[in-house]
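Quarterly update, task 2.4: L-homoserine-bound model.
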Amino acid sequence: MNSPLRLGIAGLGTVGAGVVKIVRQKANLLAARAGRPVVITAVSARSRDKDRGVNISDYAWEDDPVALARRADVDVFIELMGGSDGPAKAATEAAIAAGKDVVTANKALLAHHGQELAEAAEAADCVIRFEAAVAGGIPVVKALTEGLAGNDISRVMGVMNGTCNYILTRMQSSGLPYDVVFEEANQLGYLEADPTLDVGGIDAGHKLALLAAIAFGTRVNFAGVTLEGIERVTIEDINHAADMGFRIKLLGVCQMTGRGLEQRMSPCLVPASSPLGQLEGGTNMVVLEGDNVEQIVLRGPGAGMGPTASAVMGDVMDIARGFRLPCFGQPAAGLAPAKPARTTTPAPYYLRIGLEDKPGALAKVAMVLGEAGISIDRMRQYQHEEATAPVLIMTHKATRDALEAALADITRLDVVDGTPVALRIEAT
Ligand code: HSE
């Protein structure tokens, strides 16, 4: 048998404990598949004594993750601490400087420092692998980097934050408003310590930026992701969208256009009958489109001990087998600076406008849209008790600029009450 691959794990939270479990319980399977034993030699975490439901007494302990990263008996540094800077970054840099391969679940770290870390790793002849950072147990990094390497990728999109999908689908099934369901999710322990990471779209935005780098051969550019969270999604919009055959999802979309790289994470309408529309609860889904493969859809658990540890181990096993590839699928020096598109690809939009129920009110709205060159596809007005009627309009394709100009004019109309809502309808 060949020499063992020796792992050092920094961070023994849910995912770290899951990795320990797999390595201990599946030692024979892993050794058979890799042709060599895969063992843990050292670990590091905030507390040594915490009960994690796994036995770590066989492993050397380091209080300092940087010291762990430098240990001579560690071949692969597994970074499961999280955070874009601080100890996670310091320890990852130390591991690379010491010539160790790195496996990480840390999307924030790579979204902010992916290019410099990838360059450092290549200079040191090391690899950085991050399957667990994107969509938990779904092997989407592998699919995009390896399986679809023979395609020009035209679009990557998906639901990449299970907590947001849980909140939106629970709102729809229960009829409860956002605040109530947010609190439910909190009680269930679904939210990150900083909930804005989830509901503000930041966590999913990090993941999208990493996939965009692989898909389009560009340097990771999280700052170029247009971010909007789910906080302003109301139960009224969820119900109205459903009534018109749509679901509202926090949807990440990246595509290379003639105007530059488009990366957006925002609440969008998708057809209720589409795979994305049917995605319930905390599950993730990523849709990959390439010129040869057309479209493939990957669905699975986006978080949790088993799924995320499964993704970590997939990367570990590649390294154990001697399979090495650049962090973002091509040498880091060859990644082009991402030129963000200043405007988004035209799309149909869902509009909800509170309109005084009196003669000529609707005509005024229609006139503004017409003058902006925006054509109405469908329209609905609901029966109402109040003086303001909720009017829903689905437009044909429009540019965001034209839409925003029209919305500003519509908001100023004397027959319009409140601020209109506009949500993009994404073709699936
Ligand atoms: N908080 C994330 C989610 C998982 O809800 O999908 C970690 O990225």
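Highlight for this quarter: The first strand starts at residue 5 and ends at 10.
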